[in-house]
Amino acid sequence: MSQGDGIPLYVDSTVASRYRLIQLPPDILELLDSPEEAAHLQLKSATPDSPAFLCAYSRTFQLRQISQSNTLLLLSSGSSPETTDTVPDEILPDPVHATKLPAGYLECIPSTPQIDLSFVPYYHGADLTEAAAAGGSDADLTLSRLDVIARVPVSELEFQSAWIAAMGVEIDGCAYRIAQDLVLRILPILVAAMQADGMDFGALWLNDVFEAVRDDEDEPRAVIEAILRRFCTSPSEPYCLDRAQLTRWIGIKMLSEHAVREVKLEDFMDKWEFSLPPALDMTCELSMLTGQYVQPTTKTIKFLPSARLPVDPARRFERLFAAKSSWAQEDILPFVTDIESDKAKINTLFMKFAKKKVIKGKTYIGKRGV
Amino acid sequence: MPSATFALNTLPANSGSPFYDFPQVLQTPSGLALIEIQGTLNTGQSSADGTPSEIGRLTFDGETAWLWIGDYQRMEGTIVDLSPPFGVLRRVTRQESEKQEENGSPDGTAVEIVEVIRKKILFTSRPEPVVNQKLR
Q1: Cα–Cα distance for residue pair A272/A80, rounded to 1 Å
Q2: What are the pLDDT digits (tens) for A40-76?
Q3: Most buried in the list A198, B3, B43, B64, measured by CB within 10 Å?
Q4: Closest partner CB to A83 (pick from B6, B52, B85)
Q5: pLDDT tens, position by position, A319-332
Q6: B81: exposed, middle or buried (C-beta count within 10 Å: 0-12, 13-18, 19+)?
Q7: Do B37 and B69 form a contact (C-beta atoms < 8 A)?
Q8: Is A109 within 8 Å of chain B by CB?
Q9: Does residue A66 lie within any of the structural domains?
Q10: Which of B 53-112 lie inside 8 A of A, CB atoms?
């Protein structure tokens, strides 16, 4: 074989290629093959400078540019519109044209992004919102739900669950998160109305619930629906009220008022029990609030949500020991499991950033050097 | 916020004709293939006037490819699997996306995967001298 019968290869280095390469791991190929996922595929980024994400219906991938120094040529056969130049016509084999691709390619990394909805304004109730609108304070903040989705670089399904968890609602084309105080006010009315109408907490229909509360409450249907969906186990009708979750939410809300100063455990439990709608028939147990509180002494309690602690282990332990210098191992575990799930690695963290002590068969985790 | 729709190209392959002289494994519907050269490609001055420069001639022998450069040098390459495969991305221009309205995002930007490429021709070695057969 010699070069004489070869295919001529032309490279036009003056034309920047219109193409980019993207690595397609099996998960992405799977997405492209599934019609449901592929229909939702979108490239999104929160701001022009932040990382880009490839969002499907249920999954999100972060895109990363991988650089490499090798030359990449994309070949296209002679009649390609990429190059329009004439080609010597005496040669028998079809010539091949190539353009240089930008060095490197895009890589897709599966990601579980933190969804930040803090830019969505709070909805404090029909009266207050109208008053604010009249005053012009929030007048320019008119993001619709679609605008919010466009700002959050995650898949449709992941957004849905975050939106439900944040009790997101769209009223007159404006997206809001329902303020916790409003939820706390509506919940007892809602539960009382359900009970009065003899509804089954395990099978609730939005229409019935809305009709039941309409006499006592003038909030729009969307607000009632958002609250109902937040505290239900089923994603669609009939809704099944998750009483334990509701109890926990009220507990956390009550506890969040004691983030700076500790409160007597007894007083807190009374307050929690008092705010709980009696119809729920639930008992308040401190174990429901695991990972949300610290007990500086056995008789006091303080709000300490693990979600708001630093992710860096060194700084997290520093904060934990600032709240309490010595923890029982089972008490401190919920504050560590969200940054490290492997049991052996948690132990390594304890060894590195804390001191383990066993007193009368019980393991305590304390500050180093004390 | 920046966003663009992303889709696999489902249009009939009209952007190129297949490489009739290429081994079957390198053929793709849209007529795109990938070459990787370990090193820099220096096409010299001739490309400054806008005409593409011929860098060589490609021949194939099974899984082996040869790139003949000038009269006295050739490079040996192999056809290798891309694992994972690569997608060739192209930004669909505004007019094109208007034609296919369903593909356009609110700001009209759309990106499509023109082709999924599963093989590439990889040249890893230095060019080696050859005796020009015409001069023999």
Answers
A1: 72
A2: 888 888 888 888 899 888 889 999 999 988 888 888 7
A3: B3
A4: B52
A5: 888 888 888 888 88
A6: exposed
A7: no
A8: no
A9: yes
A10: 53-59, 61, 66-68, 74, 84-91, 105-106, 111
- Which residues 6+ apart lie within 8 Å of A32 measured at CB? A24, A38, A41, B8, B113
- The answer, for A325 touching chain B at a CB cutoff of 8 Å, is no
Amino acid A64: pLDDT? 92
ipTM over 0.95: no
For residues A172-186, one letter each, b for 16 or more C-beta atoms within 10 angstroms of the residue's C-beta and e for the rest, the string is eebbbbbbeebbeeb
CB atoms within 10 A of CB A55: 28
CB contact under 8 A, A94 and B88: no
Residue A203 has pLDDT above 90, yes or no: no
Q: What is the rounded distance in angstroms from the CA atom of residue A284 to the CA atom of residue B128?
A: 81
Number of domains in chain A: 3
The two beta strands, B64-69 and B53-61, are: antiparallel
What are the chain B neighbours of A151 within 8 Å (beta carbons)? 1
Identify the domain containing residue A356 by its residue range.
Answer: 309-370
A254 part of a folded domain: no
Per the domain annotation, does A117 fall within a domain? no
**Cα of B46 to nearest chain A Cα, Å:** 10
Q: Which residues of B touch A24 (CB under 8 A)?
A: 84-87, 113, 116
Nearest to B58 among A20, A77, A96 (CB): A96
